[in-house]
Specification:
The chain is mostly helical. Helices cover 78% and strands 0% of the residues.
Length: 335
Amino acid sequence: MRQEQFVARYQAEWQAFEHWLETRGDARRAREERSHALLGDDQVPQRYRRLCQQLALARRRGYSPVVTARLQALMQRGHNLLYRTPPPRWRRAAEFLLADFPRLVRSEAGCMWAATALFAVPLLAMFVLLQWRPELIYGVMDPMQVATMEQMYDPANEMHKLGRESGSDWTMFGVYIMNNISIGLRTFASGLLAGIGTVLVLFYNGVTIGAVFGHLQQIGYGDPLWRFVCGHAPFELTAIVIAGGAGLQLGLKLLAPGRRRRIDALVEGGIKGARLCLGVVAMLLVAAFIEAFWSSIGSIPAPVKYGVSAVLWSLVLAWLWRGGRQAQALAEAAG
């Protein structure tokens, strides 16, 4: 076989392999859809072996250095990608949290905004309503719960000022982890009830939180509560909304699978929801840590607490808005 025939016969394979190398090396994850049209990941090892055979054949037949050098370069790049040491787990986890997770949240923007409305509107409505009709608190909470809440955040009660012994901080850290994560996972999993469960959980949590804040603000006990929650609220409240969005997209997959089989759509929604929940759990761990070791310190002045809260809100929102956009831009440029 002449060199021209050899090149013409295998040129498409080389281009497909080269395209896979570029998309895989420059922007690995979100770009695979484009590369799959030419070369799927499951085909790569077979194509790599064929490339090695073609290089050996070109050398044996004495083809020009242009051809052999190209094949040698493709083989070396393929070897470096296929047989390189996988990145450490901490690096993969950091990449997921910093880039993949925010992109995943943005990919379900409609569900996330719907979850925000289902949570925030009842919360704000209940808060405002209790400023005008304070007796409505007893329609949401029983008198014992209200009395306990008032005693806990009474500014004049020295026994219940914010602050604990350092040893109990670790105990409360564990309590907060279990409580927060159970709420987050319940919010997501209830999406299996055609999304209705997630709607009810978001609405209930919004009403309950709005009732607590609205009542304590109305009776003049708002300052200790605001100072306590402002630190961990950016992570905790945002995580609950994201878990709600994950549950809503799961419910939508069940109700409107499109052209796919319902079970296939549900599996897809479950996988995406599980990945979203990984980020939610990470956020709730951070929230629990802040709640146990920062929020409970009552000696810190209110302006400092609110300043830190403003910084944390800015970081969380910027992370979800901008995280992973640079890698996405590289992917689109490579495609």
